[in-house]
Amino acid sequence: MTHTLYSPLDMHLHLRDSAMLQTVAPLSAQSFSGGLIMPNLVPPVSTISGVLEYQQRIKEATKNETFEPLMTLFFRSDYTREFLQQASLHVKALKLYPSGITTNSEGGVASMDVEVLRPVLQAMSDLGLVLCVHGETNGFVMDREKEFCNIYEDLASAFPKLKIIMEHITTCESVALLDKYENLYATITLHHLLITLDDVVGGMLKPHLFCKPIAKRYEDKEALLHVALQAHPKVMFGSDSAPHPISKKECCGCAAGVFTSPIALQALAELFDKHNALASLQSFVSNNAQAIYAYTPPFKEVVLVKVPYRVPNSYGDVVPMFADETLAWSIQSVR
Ligand code: DOR
Ligand code: ZN
Q1: Å from CA of 2 to ligand 2 middle
Q2: How far is the C-alpha of 318 from the C-alpha of 204, rounded, in Å?
Q3: Where do the domains of the chain lie, and which CATH numbers do they carry?
Q4: What's the pLDDT score for residue 300?
Q5: Does ligand 1 have an atom closer than 6 angstroms to the CB of 242?
Q6: Which DSSP letter does residue 144 get?
Q7: Which residue from 10, 13, 14, 15 has its CB within 8 A of the most atoms of ligand 1, so it is best to mutate?
Q8: 246-288: per-residue pLDDT in tens?
Q9: Which residue among 17, 41, 103, 138 has the greatest number of ligand 1 atoms within 8 angstroms of its CB, and so is best to mutate?
Q10: Interstrand relation of 309-310 and 326-327 (parallel, antiparallel or unpaired)
Q11: Integer Cα distance of 237 and 67 in angstroms
Q12: Where does the pLDDT of residue 103 fall: very low under 50, low under 70, confident under 90, or very high at 90 and above?
């Protein structure tokens, strides 16, 4: 049994830089035709030259494959309209991190007050730039995303023409917002469709499943599955594949992030097949994102086949999700 996908897109991807970029970027480029690249480098990508130089390094690292890196800019509340107008020629979106909320987000916004953010958000809305948001407060870890829903509602109402992507949603409350506000959309990761907090800390601690936002409850996972498996037109696949070297994961003070990009399509095929939903996978991994971002990716044809795939125990010094386990689907060919 085979299933063919056309131009799969990963609309939330961490490729890092330097040696890590060289390790992970080709792995995404092998099976995806493009990805929305997160700007949380050290220092963050917050200038136009920074965007263009980073894009060039990604293109260089992926030059043997067809892969288009769609760039983002690290959100700052003091950008001018003139700067954003120039930036809009080179980036699709700005990524907003509340300060200190996750990996390399220290330079993020200190206040989520709509009035503080208004000049930049109004300019983005006028310029057609998309706002991608890491939506967590600094409250109790299981409630951070739920508590952020009020902020999503304030932003969506204050800027009705601004497309707002609730990144890597993990709760039923976020899912409910999709149908309440026309301008709210979401990415969903592979891991949040598969695991709950129980998988992370319920038995032996699993550092390679530790990420932000943390995986939630069974009913949250079910709500995510419900919209992903029917490819609700306002959701799209964004892996949030976030590689860290093994020394930063298997240690005291484990970094947040699950590395999924090389196994994402195989695992998604297995999941959608299990739920008799393979017919929705094309929309979830490409067509919805194309519509939301008004973007046509380069052509790529990925043939998946229901033949077991043994996941390697590592790629360089990064451990993937399902390391040393066997998935039910493999990639048969890419052209
Ligand atoms: O788990 C995560 N890792 N969540 C994020 O928001 C950032 C990411 C990273 O960059 O490592
Ligand atoms: Zn991320």
Answers
A1: 31
A2: 20
A3: 2-334 (3.20.20.140)
A4: 98
A5: yes
A6: H
A7: 14
A8: 999 999 999 999 999 999 999 999 999 999 999 999 999 999 9
A9: 103
A10: antiparallel
A11: 16
A12: confident
